[in-house]
Write a structure and sequence with these properties.
single chain, 386 residues, alpha+beta, nine-stranded mixed sheet, two-stranded antiparallel sheet, 51% helix
Amino acid sequence: MRWLDRTALGWIQLKHDRTRLLVSLFGVAVADMLMFMQLGILQTNYASATTLHEKLRAELFVISRKGEELSNLFTFPRRRLMQIQAHPGVLATEPLYIAPLPWSHPETRQRGQLLALGLEPMGRGLDLEQLQPLQGKLKLLDHILLDSKSKGDYRHIQSQIEAGEVVTHEVEGHRLKIAGFVPLGTSFMRNGHLICSPSTFLRLVPGRQPGQVSLGLVYVRPGWPIEQVASQLAERLPCELRILSKPQFRKMELDHLNRQAPMTLIFGMMTVVGFVVGAAMMYQILSMDVTDHLPEYATFKAMGYSHGYLLTVVYEQALILSLIGYGPGLGAALLLYSFVRSQAQLPIVMTGQRLLLVLALTILMGLISGTLAASKLRKADPADIF
């Protein structure tokens, strides 16, 4: 009997009891929603933690060996960048000053913290198109740029600036002029960013000396292998400094994140919980259906149908539940993603890779539950009927 010619017995049995079908679909949808949310939050956490790393244009980065994450880097002497500049494979270097800064929203007065970045106004440290027309304003003392993706609603302030109005705000006793906005992004650890010149940065962060920088940006001359330049610079620099490529710099941040809180383990376990919950609910439904129809299955065996055919009926039910339940689970996850983006202002989005991963897990969930439920088919003995 060809597969396409067979009667869809599994589907007929499922839709016969609509209440049981809806309960099963609800269980699959909830399980999928949980898996979508856990995987989405995990990936968003990692991506948002390294947003600034990706926006930095340099090929190599110099940090103090004591530093473990971007918002809390130890400083080192700026003269080390001049030493690096002497290497023939180095095109240029730039200092970057970084420090967390207390911040209150100019309109709502809601308090939080922004990561202040003091960079050379006419440098090329950040790979942002929106920054180029605003670089001249950063030359002016006490002029700042705000992260347009910072937590809080800044749309009214943006419209004021676009209309040519002067918007000022007091921070740490200094009256600052908000000169514009650039998009960087928030994370679970940071509410946003503030960009200014080194001179303005030193006024906002008391105790920081001009000769003490947080991060050194190193631009490698075209034609020179990045790994070679990094290795040679590491031999010349003192042992208290580290020189990292961009992948290494990004990995440093993620390693610190995992040490502080094992995110992969936590959200991975929650994904497993969602998978187990869905598989358990599907097994209960399929097991009840097999038990209720044991006499019919025994009759099929007496009529000459093989045990393998009966297995296809159960697997058909499992596959139908998996595929139909996947849709509502995806829809619920997309609604929750939208809610998280609007309320927490985190860049959580659905990806094609995650769609396929959860779909594969859902089908696997159905196959496992179907296999466990199908074990009861061996009890379908024609001798018990006749």
